[in-house]
Structure formats: C-alpha cells, structure tokens
Design goal:
The protein is an alpha/beta fold and 320 residues long. The chain is built from 12 helices and 6 strands. It has a domain of 158 residues: TIM Barrel (Alpha-Beta Barrel). It is globular, with a radius of gyration of 19 Å.
C-alpha cells in the first residue's frame, strides 16, 4: 500500500524493497487496484518482470472506486470482469494467484460476486479468491452460498489485526478456522501505532494517513488516547523481552494458530529491515499474558480501526 503516491513515490526504491523482501525469503506479495490508483500494482509488476513472477504468490484486490463513474467500483460481475483485466495489465502477468474482495458490498448479492470469481478461476485468470475485512456473519454466508450453488469459495480472509485491534478474536478467527480459511491480517503495527514512534511523552507523528483518517489518529480523541497509553505499556513489555515494539507486534500476530501470515507495509528499506526479524521470534505464555492484561482478548480500543462500519448500526435509521 505504501508504494506510489500514497507513500514512496520513488519506483526504483520501491522495487528495491520488494527485491530485498524476496531475497529474505518472503514469497507472498499483496497489493490492490486502489493503492495509489493502480500505481502500486504497476510497481509490483515491474519488480516481478525480471523473472521472479513464478516464485511469488501474487495477490491483489478490487472493490474501491477507481474512477468517478459509479460503475467503476463494487463487487458486481460487470466490475469484477472488467477490473481483473486492468489489474492483470498493470501487474504484467497472465494470472493472479489470489484475487480478493476488498470490502463487502451491500448493493450486490454475494452469489453474483462468487459466481463471477468462480468463472475467473475456470478461465485461468485467477487461481484462488478471498475476502478482506468481512464480518464473521458474511464470511459464513459466503461459505454457505458457495456450497449451495456449487461455486468456488473464499479461501482466505484479510482482516485488521494487531495488539490494539483484537475484535476479530471474538468471531472472525474462529469462523475461519472452522471453514479452513487462511487468515492474512493487515496492519499488524496498527497503522503505525506500534512502530515505537507513538509515545505519551512525545508528539504524535504527522503523516498523510493521519490527515486522511483523523478518527484513527487524532490524539485529542479519547479512543486514540487509550491507544497511545496501551502502545506505551506494550513498548515496555517489548523492551523487557529484549525486542523492539515492531518485532513484538508482528510476532504476536503470527503467533495465533488461525493466522497464516501477517501482511507488512514498509515504505522504506529501513522499515522492511526492522520488520523481517519478527518472523523467527517465538513468544512465551508470560509475555502473551502481559499483553492480554493491557488489551484484553477480543477488544478493539478504537472501533474506527476495525476497517468497516456495521451496516446494521449505521445510519441510526436502520435500527428503527
């Protein structure tokens, strides 16, 4: 997500980060059409154009607006069939290993979405497909519809998950385990809150992301003050364990038995190097218990970090 106008605008530097990750043993790359409006996919495509494509599990996503036209978005058959061709072109590849629905679409029946994705699998344009940031109820519904209609099913779910954002422990992770769905969480560093830069004694870092998402970053909000205090306490746990907060945060996410892999989003080579060691870290029960004391299981400190609003609760008129 950090490659292109949303983050690192230097294509060569972004490609260097990708190549370093591959050289370090990472073999899964996740992007999306909406990241920098296609620019991220173009960078990834250039990075893999030197013969590395065959050894990489390549994933991208669709759903978010890609233009002013109201039909250039969503989960309809019309848009899926059109947008997969755009992603294939930008990625410079003949197939996508994992094509993901970036968010649910209340305006499109899930059967229509699964049917279009199944056709893409049978056409050889994609190998598998998955969901991202789906509530547990919709994950289960999609599995049921796939079975009843004899369609391919979601094989993965990509939810937000970190030591500060634990809501999926209540139902999503258990549902994925029961259906054999791989879980590949995004934002294990909680959007930077667990990078070590957010401390109660210092100034909150400024960024484009913080400007776009004040509900998640405005330190004057009570929900974010709670996050800041928790990040401070977790930093002390990491220090006492001889780890950086970054290492603790990523290791904690991949420690859960339902999690297949954590998705990291480095903007610089230094960011990547600081995150790579987490793959080899094992956390003992004592550390896990201390983390649970700071942020209890199943708790998301700021609801804005969940990645979606429950349509049953907003707007208020739907409750009447």
């Amino acid at each position: 997500m950090m490659f292109g106008s949303w983050g690192n605008t230097d294509h060569d530097a972004s490609i260097e980060i990708i190549h370093r990750a591959l050289d370090a043993g990472i073999n899964f790359i996740d992007t999306a059409d909406v990241y920098s409006q296609g620019e991220s996919e173009e960078i990834v495509g250039k990075a893999l154009a030197d013969g590395r494509r065959e050894s990489v599990v390549l994933a991208t996503k669709f759903h978010a607006p890609m233009g002013e036209d109201p039909n250039e978005r969503g989960n309809s058959r019309r848009w899926i069939i059109r947008e997969v061709e755009n992603s294939l072109r930008r990625l410079q590849t003949d197939w996508i290993d994992l094509y993901q629905v970036h968010r649910p679409d209340v305006g499109t029946d899930i059967e229509e979405t699964l049917s279009a994705l199944t056709d893409l699998v049978r056409a050889g344009k994609i190998r598998y497909f998955g969901s991202s940031t789906f509530p547990a109820g919709q994950i289960v519904e999609a599995q049921w519809v796939a079975r009843e209609r004899h369609l391919e099913r979601f094989k993965t779910e990509q939810p937000p998950y970190s030591m500060l954002v634990r809501g999926i422990e209540a139902d999503v992770l258990g549902s994925c385990q029961r259906y054999g769905i791989a879980v590949i969480p995004w934002s294990p560093l909680a959007g930077g809150w667990l990078s070590g830069q957010y401390r109660t004694s210092g100034e909150i870092p400024r960024s484009r992301r913080a400007e776009r998402l004040p509900a998640r970053y405005d330190a004057s909000l009570a929900t974010n003050r709670v996050k800041l205090e928790a990040a401070e306490a977790l930093a002390l746990v990491a220090e006492e364990a001889g780890l950086s907060l970054i290492e603790l945060a990523i290791a904690w996410v991949i420690n859960h038995p339902a999690v297949t892999s954590a998705i990291i989003g480095p903007r610089t080579l230094e960011h990547l190097e600081s995150q790579l060691p987490a793959a080899d870290i094992k956390l003992d029960a004592a550390i896990l218990d201390r983390i649970d004391e700071i942020v209890p299981p199943g708790v998301t400190l700021n609801p804005a970090d969940q990645g979606y609003e429950n349509p049953a609760l907003a707007p208020a008129a739907r409750r009447r």
